[in-house]
Structure formats: C-alpha cells, structure tokens
C-alpha cells in the first residue's frame, strides 16, 4: 500500500477525467507518487518546489522560445516534480513540440487538459486522496501494533509471530541468528527449498548491503530484502528478514510490521512461560532468581529453607540434565518438540525423587524459564551437600536413578563446581548448563555417568558458547572475508586453512592430506594470507584462526 497516490491514480480522479486529461509525453513514468498539487504560471516556479508536485498551468506565463521551454522542463525535472499538466485553449490549442519532446527526453510526464478545468477542483480531489491514503496507512499501522501487542501478551512463539508477518506482508520471512543460520521461517506459501537455498551466502551479502543504513532496519536493494535486528537490552541475537520481490524501496508499513515482529520475538525470549507443577514452579522461581541475580542470596536461602532445602553452611553443586533423542532420530541430538514438555515434567520429578532417595536436599525444576540462555530440554538442580556427602557418590547415584526408568530415554547429566555460598550458586549452575550442552554436541558421552568441565575441552567450550553473539561476531571478524571469497570464487580456502592448522602447520603433511601437490597447496595458503591479511607463520595468528574455525564448526552444527 502506498501512502501517496501515483500520477496514474491521480489522472483517474473525477475532475481530471472531466478535464479530458491526456498523457502527451513520458507515459512510462506515471507510477511517480504525487505529494502535492501546485498551480503556477511563472517559468521559475521550480525554486518553490521540493519534489513530488504535480504542476498545473495554462501556459500563459511560459517562455515563447524552444530554449526557454527546454530550461523550464529541465528545472522541473531536476527538482523531482511528479508531472506537468497544461490546460489547452488559453495559450495553446496544441502542446508545442519543444515542450513535449523535452518532457519525453527528461522522463517528466506531460498531461494535456483538453477541456476547461477548474484547478481548485483538481487540488481538492488530489489532496483529499492524499489525506485518505494517509489515514488508511495510520489505521493499518495501528492494526499492526495491536496485532503484535496481542501476540506478545499471549506469549506467542516464533512460528506464530512469523506466520503473522508473512500474512501481513504476503512475502516469506526468515528469523536467523548472527551467524546467518536459520532459526525459523514462514515461506508464505512459496517453496521452502527455494527460499532457503544458499541462505548463508545470500544473507551475508544482504548484511553487507545494509551495514551502512541508519537505525536497526535496512533494505538490500539488490535482493529486495528488508532486514531488521532482533534483540533487547542492548544485546542483539538475530535478524528478521522479509524476502520481498520487485524493485524500489518497500512501503514504510512493511518496516513497521518487521520491527514490531522483532520486538515480539525479543519479548518472547525474555519472558518464557512456565507450565510446570506448583512445587517445580516454586523451585524454578528460586533457580531463576539465582541465575538472574534477581533476588538476594539471603532471601533465596530463606525461601529454600522453608521448602526443606537448606543452602547455608552447605556445599552447593549445580546439576543440569539434558534430554537426548534416540539414535537415528530425525531431530538429531534433541528430542521431538511435542515430547519435550511431557518428558521434562517426568524428568524433573524423577530427579527430585532421586535426590530424596539419596537423602540430598535439592532445588529441582525444568530450566525452560530459569536457564541463563534458555535451555528448553533441560532440568536444573542445585544439590545441597553436607560435610559427609561425597560428590562423586551422590552424582553417580543421581545419574543412575534418573536413567533407571525404561521410558527415561537418553539423558546427559552434567555438574558444575562445588561452591560454599548461595551467591556463588549461579556460577555452578551455569557451568553445569554449559557442560551439558557441550557434552550433548559431542555425542552425549556414552558410558560416562556424568560430565564435568574437564571432560568437554576446547571444542565443547566453543560449542556451549555458539549462541553467544560475541563468539559469532568473532568468527565473522576472523573468517568472514575468507568465507565470502570462497562463496564468490568457488574456492575452498577455508578447508585448506583448516587442514593446515589441523596438521600442526606442517605444510607437507597438510598438502598430502588435502590430496594436492605442495606447490598448489602452498599457493592456496598464500591466497589465504592475502585475503585475511595475516601471516600464517605467526603462532598467535594461527591460534586465533584455529579457534575461529572450531567456533565456526560449533556455530554451524
């Protein structure tokens, strides 16, 4: 929807139809928006215009000579006038060839009004059309705000928000993270495979195209994409991309739709609904308070003691239980979404029962709302150990108990470090969540009862940080030019760099592993140095690039 009517739409209005309006030149440019109508009989009117005006004249004050008419047309075209309408009968019975020819060359629409025309009626009709369009646009914008406010209040998920964007815009929409990986999408009835084909490369190009745009929303004219950042509290974690078709800037309304959808997605990430039992919800509230520093440690300890879980004067160990899909599952390492909530409720109850059976007080709840980075398929625990409890024995018994039921499925058990103060419990819980995430990425550690930080090493560390925008930014900074070069030239420089670093910077061994002659492999390394502007003989440069490659693998996994 256009706020301003086009010149073609204006010519269809009643007063201009009655005036016998006929396009005499530049008829291909009737899609120009008309911002205003200006009546003028002087040749230097251009200095009073600011662009988008339809100029009405009888021609009485226009120059007689060809050069003067050409200058008049040039000044209107230079200032961006929408068109020129001349009433015949006062000065000319037919438009001069000098006027029509110059308008055609400058692509300035020229309209002949073949009957006497009350110019006031024209201005009233056009200005009324402009005001009506602006009112309609305001109503549409209000509808957008109301719709996304309702979605936010109802706690709509990403799929619902994207579905509404696709409906309002009539175009596909994609939610991606900062590493250009697709998190969710709605194809708006189009072929999803075509929509997501070479998504990462196309998204990188769009991000580069809109990088200089002011504000959070930009338009990639080459692809027709409208892109806005998604995030809150100064921390962006993704982008929302509206895949448009056609040339020219998109209507302002679509930017409003995209930005309100981004706000709804950011709010949904901040406010996650907790649908667990009252006891688990109470435990979850305390865990969330610890993780978010939302409640003083003394208050958490007081409320926990009232629940039968003493936290003061004890050794506190954070534990995270992650669900694992069966081998060969199409969902990979995570369970099917429809099973998650039911399995989490069962797992939380199993874990609480296991802790009671071991005689260890514990706060136990699903981490859907309490997790530091949002872990929808995990249960968190804060074990409260006495001086005589041995951590290894308690953790081993706990892991065995939660896996004992036949319907328990795969579960990764991860533990953080032991701490002695309630205020330090957050560190132990976050460490456990990170270790569980990394262990899951490494296959779940079959045969191991539980995992701790030394078990996951650097690959696990990078995997658990893969959703952190800072790590994604680091990968883009270190490897972005090389990834773009490979995409643009069909090369495999990233793979060559990875082979070189994986073989301890032994060029001969790396060339053999890559099945290339040494001169050919060396040439690839020289090209890597040229594209990245680094020296591959430098230990620090290679270390930085190696970490970036491992992080890239974690982000893409």
How does this structure look, described?
By secondary structure, the protein is of the alpha+beta class. The protein folds into four domains: 7-129, 3-Layer(aba) Sandwich (Udp-n-acetylmuramoylalanyl-d-glutamate--2,6- Diaminopimelate Ligase, Chain: A, domain 1); 155-270, Beta-Lactamase, CATH 3.30.450; 278-455, Alpha-Beta Plaits (2-Layer Sandwich), CATH 3.30.70; 469-556, no CATH class. It is built from 20 helices and 14 strands. It has helices at 7-11, 14-18, 66-79, 97-105, 119-153, 158-169, 192-196, 199-210, 252-270, 278-291, 297-306, 337-357, 391-402, 425-441, 457-464, 469-489, 493-502, 507-513, 518-532, 539-556, and strands spanning 21-25, 36-39, 53-57, 83-87, 110-113, 173-177, 182-186, 217-220, 225-232, 235-243, 315-324, 362-366, 378-385, 410-419. Strands 1-5-4-3-2 form a five-stranded mixed β-sheet. The two termini are 41 Å apart. Residues 272-276, 327-338 and 369-374 have low confidence and may be disordered. Residues 9-130 form the Purine catabolism PurC-like domain. This is PucR family transcriptional regulator.
């Amino acid at each position: 929807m256009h706020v301003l009517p086009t010149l073609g739409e204006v010519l269809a209005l009643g007063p201009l139809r009655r005036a016998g309006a006929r396009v005499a030149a530049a008829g291909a440019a009737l899609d120009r928006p008309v911002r205003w109508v200006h009546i003028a009989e002087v040749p230097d009117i251009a200095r009073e215009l600011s662009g988008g005006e339809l100029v009405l004249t009888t021609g009485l004050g226009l120059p007689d000579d060809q050069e003067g008419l050409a200058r008049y047309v040039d000044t209107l075209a230079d200032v961006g006038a929408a068109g020129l309408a001349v009433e015949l009968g006062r000065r000319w019975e037919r438009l001069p060839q000098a006027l029509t020819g110059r308008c055609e060359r400058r692509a300035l629409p020229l309209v002949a009004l073949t009957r006497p025309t009350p110019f006031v009626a024209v201005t009233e009709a056009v200005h009324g059309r402009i005001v009506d369009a602006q009112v309609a646009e305001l109503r549409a914008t209000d509808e957008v705000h109301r719709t996304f406010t309702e979605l936010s209040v109802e706690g709509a998920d990403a799929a619902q928000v994207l579905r509404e964007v696709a409906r309002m815009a009539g175009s596909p929409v994609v939610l991606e993270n900062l590493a250009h990986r697709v998190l969710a999408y709605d194809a708006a009835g189009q072929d999803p495979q075509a929509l997501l084909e070479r998504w990462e490369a196309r998204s990188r190009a769009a991000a580069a195209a809109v990088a200089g745009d002011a504000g959070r929303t930009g338009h990639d004219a080459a692809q027709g994409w409208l892109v806005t950042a998604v995030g809150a509290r100064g921390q962006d974690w993704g982008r929302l991309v509206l895949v448009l078709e056609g040339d020219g800037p998109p209507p302002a309304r679509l930017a409003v739709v995209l930005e309100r959808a981004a706000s709804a997605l950011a709010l949904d990430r901040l406010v996650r609904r907790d649908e667990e039992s009252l006891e688990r919800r109470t435990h979850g509230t305390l865990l969330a308070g610890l993780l978010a520093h939302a409640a003083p440690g003394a208050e958490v300890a007081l409320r926990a003691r009232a629940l039968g879980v003493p936290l003061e004067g004890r050794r506190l160990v954070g534990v995270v239980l992650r669900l694992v899909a069966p081998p060969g599952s199409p969902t990979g390492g995570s369970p099917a979404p429809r099973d998650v909530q039911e399995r989490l409720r069962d797992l939380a109850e199993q874990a609480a029962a296991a802790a009671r059976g071991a005689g260890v007080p514990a706060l136990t709840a699903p981490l859907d709302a309490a997790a530091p980075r949002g872990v929808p398929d995990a249960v968190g625990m804060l074990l409260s150990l006495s001086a005589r409890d041995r951590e290894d024995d308690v953790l081993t018994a706990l892991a065995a108990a939660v896996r004992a039921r036949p319907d328990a499925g795969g579960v990764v058990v991860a533990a953080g470090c032991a701490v002695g103060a309630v205020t330090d419990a957050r560190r132990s819980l976050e460490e456990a969540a990170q270790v569980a995430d990394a262990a899951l990425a490494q296959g779940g550690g079959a045969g191991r009862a539980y995992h701790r930080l030394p078990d996951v090493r650097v690959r696990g560390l990078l995997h658990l940080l893969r959703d952190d925008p800072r790590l994604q930014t680091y990968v883009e900074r270190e490897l972005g030019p090389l990834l773009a070069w490979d995409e643009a030239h069909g090369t495999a420089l990233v793979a060559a760099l990875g082979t070189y670093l994986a073989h301890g910077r032994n060029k001969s061994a790396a060339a053999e592993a890559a099945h290339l002659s040494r001169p050919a492999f060396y040439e690839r390394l020289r090209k890597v140095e040229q594209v990245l502007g680094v020296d591959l003989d430098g230990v620090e440069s290679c270390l930085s690039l190696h970490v970036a490659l491992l992080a890239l693998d974690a982000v893409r996994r």
